[in-house]
Design brief:
The structure is a single chain. The chain is built from 11 helices and 2 strands; from the N terminus they run ββααααααααααα. With 204 residues, the chain is mainly α. It has a single domain, classed as Hypothetical protein, domain 2 (Endonuclease III, domain 1, Orthogonal Bundle). The protein has a two-stranded antiparallel sheet. Helix 2 (38-51) crosses helix 10 (165-175) and helix 9 packs across helix 10 (165-175). The longest helix has 21 residues, at 99-119. It is globular. The chain starts with a strand and ends in a 7-residue tail after the last helix.
Length: 204
């Protein structure tokens, strides 16, 4: 089971977030809170893909640069990017200059556009996978799950890239599909309350 550690204010938080002020702000205000905005969901999934093989601190520190580079993750705009945009982004020192990941974002933007046509929204699709509470493992004790494997497999079938089970599981944590805050973490009950007020876009 994940442990908590006191933050600068002495209050208990998930141990992983204590390393930097940026982590603490992200942990306290974003991580695990339910998201139903398609643009934000697309951003979170793309950033988790960029994080593969790197530290989250690197990605979080470059997040504003990523937003500028990818039109604030408006997938309808990113879907229109061409080869010259890939070359432009490869020259952008403010982001992670990895050709495969950059091309994946553009590819996934096109897939996202198709998903909206088929499912109504990205939110309806992803929230359709929300697990039952009783099926969840103890917080932060795993890096994949049956559901992350299922989502990953389905996304790949639909043409998405850089969406392996570990990346998808991190996305599930970040977007609030699961509440993976440690037991005793000050933010866990806040996320629980936010989820109780939240209407599942998939109607679950």
């Amino acid at each position: 089971m994940a442990i908590t550690e006191p933050g600068p204010d002495g209050k208990p938080r998930c141990g992983w977030c204590i390393a930097t002020e940026e982590y603490i702000a992200y942990h306290d205000n974003e991580w695990g809170f339910p998201v139903d905005d398609d643009r934000r969901l697309f951003e979170k999934l793309c950033l988790e893909g960029f994080q593969s093989g790197l530290s989250w601190r690197t990605i979080l520190g470059k997040r504003e640069n990523f937003r500028k580079a990818f039109k604030n993750f408006d997938f309808n705009k990113v879907a229109r990017f061409m080869a010259e945009d890939v070359e432009r982004l490869l020259g952008d020192a403010g982001i992670v200059r990895h050709r495969g990941k950059i091309e994946a974002v553009i590819n996934n933007a096109r897939c996202a556009r198709e998903m909206v046509k088929q499912e109504g929204s990205l939110a309806a699709y992803f929230w359709g996978f929300e697990p039952q509470a009783e099926s969840l493992a103890a917080p932060q004790t795993q890096s994949t799950s049956e559901i992350s494997v299922a989502i990953s497999k389905d996304l790949k079938k639909k043409g998405w890239k850089f969406v392996g089970p570990t990346t998808v599981y991190a996305f599930m944590q970040a977007m609030g599909l699961i509440n993976d805050h440690a037991i005793g973490c000050l933010t866990r009950p806040l996320v629980t309350a936010a989820r109780q007020r939240f209407t599942n876009p998939a109607g679950k």
